[in-house]
Structure formats: structure tokens, C-alpha cells
Amino acid sequence: EEEVPATMERAIQRFFLGKDHSPRILVGAVMAMAVSRAAMALVPGGETFDHLDLLVLALVCQFWMFQEWWLHKYLLHSFKWWGQEYHHQHHLLDYYYVSIDPVWLVVSWFLAAFGLFYLLLPTDLCLSATFAYSAMGLLYEFCHYLAHTKVMPKNRLLRAIKLHHMKHHFVDEDSWFAFSGLYIDSLLKTAPSGEELVK
User: Fold this and answer.
1) Which of 28, 49, 66, 197 sits 20 to 30 Å CA-CA off 177?
2) Range 36-55 burial, b when 16+ CB lie within 10 A, else e
């Protein structure tokens, strides 16, 4: 059985340099999209980075947070299907374990997102959108992984994410679905108060 990291240094090392390839694939995707978008802006007559890129970046980041909540609540905690069963196994494991999504899942999401953005947006904005989507995917992967390690982060945001996720696992798995945007649980009324939980 693999030892679960207990220090931030070890957790970072295990995430980026360990046996799981998904984090490195996501880093590669983020870098590839950034370099591709920069190259488009640098070629003569190319599409410069402008307010539309900023708008797309902001919208995709917000979309990711709501998508993450929706998928967690309605696909992974609702009706019976393979994904719900797979996620249920995650809840049955010891809380502290190395939790990194498999390569097939990460690559599938990346390709689906890129394909959708390619169909909907001009190439320059497609690259910006896929950059944001991949960056949010990397953020999610790291934060979810870190939440399941023995590390209690000193960083306030990372600590809040970990404690939020622990409530989902230990208090009520029908609440606290958000990850990257914790405010979404409050907005969508899935962050109950102590009084609501007693009822």
C-alpha cells in the first residue's frame, strides 16, 4: 500500500513526479495551449491577445466551477450508473489515500473540451478557452489530491478546500459538492448550516 504524503513538499513531489501521468499531461496541455496562443499573437497579422481572450478565460473558469458542482451532484451522487458506482467506491476508501484521476479520463475531458471549443469559437479563442479549461482541470486535480493527503495546508484557500471536502466525506455526502469555487455550494444551497443538518 502506497504511503500517503504528510508534508506539502512530499505531496507536490508525488503529484508532479509520481507514477501517475495525469498531472504531467495536464501541465503539458496548459503549456501547449499557452504557447500555441502566444504563437498566434506573435506571427505577423496574427490574432493579438485582447479583451475577448480575457472574457473567454473568465467565462471558462466560471463554467468549470459550475460544471464541477453539477457533475459531482447530478452524475456522481444521483442515479445508478457506472460513474456513480465508480465514485461511490471513492467514498468507501480510507479518506487518506493518493487520489489522482486516470489518464483515460483526463485525456477524454481534454479532447472533448478542445473539440467543443474548436466547433464554437475561432481558433485563437479556442486556444484561450482550452488553456483555461486545462488550467482549471489541473487546479481541481491538485486540490482534490491534496484534500486526500495527510497535509493540512497553511495556505488559507487550500485549507478551506480541504476542510470543505472533508465535510462532504465525513458529515453529509449529499452536501458540499463544490471544489474550485466553494461559494457555489452556498449559492446553490448545498452547504447546510449545523441547524439544517440536524433536521
Assistant:
1) 28
2) bbeebeeeeeebebeeebee
User: Which residue is it, cell 471544489?
Assistant: 179
Q: How many CB atoms lie under 10 A from the CB of residue 115?
A: 12
Res. 117 pLDDT band, cuts 50 70 90: very high
3 belongs to a structural domain: no
Q: What is the pTM of this model?
A: 0.92
Q: Residue 69's pLDDT is what?
A: 96
**Contact assessment for residue 165 and residue 179, using Cβ atoms and an 8 Å cutoff:** yes
The label of the residue with cell 452524475 reads 75
| Structural domain count, the chain | 1
Q: Residue 139 is part of which domain span?
A: 8-198
